[in-house]
Amino acid sequence: MTGNVPVTYQEVFRTERGVVYQCDVSNRLILEFWDTHTQFSARDFAQFRRMVETVDIRQMALSTDAADDVEILALPRSERCYVLTLCEIVHLRELLNGAKLMLELNAMLRECGCSLTE
Amino acid sequence: MNFSPDTVNSMKDLARLRTSVKESVELALNQQIQMEMVSSSKYLAMAGWCDRNGFDHSAGFFYKQSEEERKHAMKFFHYLCDQGATAYSPEIPAIGQEFDSLRSVFEGALEQEISVTDSINRIISICRRENDYATEELLKWYVREQMEEEYIARRCLELIDQIPADQVYYLDKKLASVTYDGNVFE
């Protein structure tokens, strides 16, 4: 996907591990992380970000239980799920929080009549 | 990235199109829904304790309070839904069912009302930070309500101090009849 991004996609935030786009035609946020590609509504994106934010990574780091090696996160309104290691959660948090910040910045700029463009 | 005043509206604000309630306010209101439901549950436990210990009038008072707290929670719940935000049905933790005395029941009630008032005030400060005037307007109703609730709880504790301990039936009856008629905002 990264090599062939639809013209309607606007990049919101990018890290080495992934990227978040916004599509104003479908009103969707698109998360590309590792080899996955997931589309969210604004509501589901916020909900998913909160799910990632509330994972107890301290418990994952300290526990010797095999069940704590990965965290399974069910995507809102989808049958798919993410199975993430501690490192992947840290990377996903960085990406989602960066995207959240840029979306908030876009909202603030719109409120004062400016906009965020590349 | 650069800021361009000339290309206004180049990227939609999807969150704003969905709802007028900012995420921080939505989170605070959902926490408040939980707090109101916990209050309702605590008052129900108090009503049950009063009922089984012969304080029928106080039991009636707390049954009513329990209903009221639930209505407060539902008011927030409907508000969030109406504004396009997400309201969550809250988890209610285990509630203590036993109390040492009638006084400790009313002390618990006052403490609960004070924490609700503090929480409402905290949400108002979040609304002001986010320029959310609609939610602040809604919260003004709760400010007035909390004045009333705190007054009633305090007055009940005063009555427990003032009425001699051997007049239990009279005390129980008086406690259930306390109202706040002098709200300066009404």
Description of the structure:
The complex is a heterodimer of chains A (118) and B (186). Chain A has 118 residues and is of the alpha+beta class. Chain A has one domain: Transcriptional Co-activator pc4, Chain A, CATH 2.30.31. Chain A has helices at 42-53, 57-62, 86-111, and strands at residues 9-14, 18-23, 28-33, 36-40, 70-74, 81-85, 116-117. A 4-stranded antiparallel β-sheet of chain A has the order 1-2-3-4. Chain A has a two-stranded antiparallel ribbon with strand order 5-6. The longest helix of chain A has 26 residues, at 86-111. The two termini of chain A are 19 Å apart. The model of chain A has no long low-confidence stretch (mean pLDDT 89). Chain B is mostly helical and 186 residues long. Chain B has one domain (20-87, 97-176): Ferritin, core subunit, four-helix bundle (Ferritin, Up-down Bundle). Helices cover 69% and strands 1% of the residues of chain B. Chain B is built from 6 helices and 1 strand. Chain B has helices at 14-18, 23-52, 56-82, 102-129, 133-162, 168-176, and one strand at residues 2-3. The longest helix of chain B has 30 residues, at 23-52. The model of chain B is unreliable at 1-8 (pLDDT under 50). Chains A and B meet through helix 1, helix 3 and strand 7 of A and strand 1 and helix 1 of B. Strand 7 of chain A pairs antiparallel with strand 1 (2-3) of chain B, so a sheet runs across the interface. Chain B: May alleviate iron toxicity in the presence of oxygen. Iron-storage protein. Chain B: Residues 19-164 form the Ferritin-like diiron domain. Chain B: Pfam families: Ferritin (PF00210). Chain B: It is found in: Cytoplasm. Chain B: GO terms for molecular function: ferric iron binding; ferrous iron binding; identical protein binding; oxidoreductase activity.
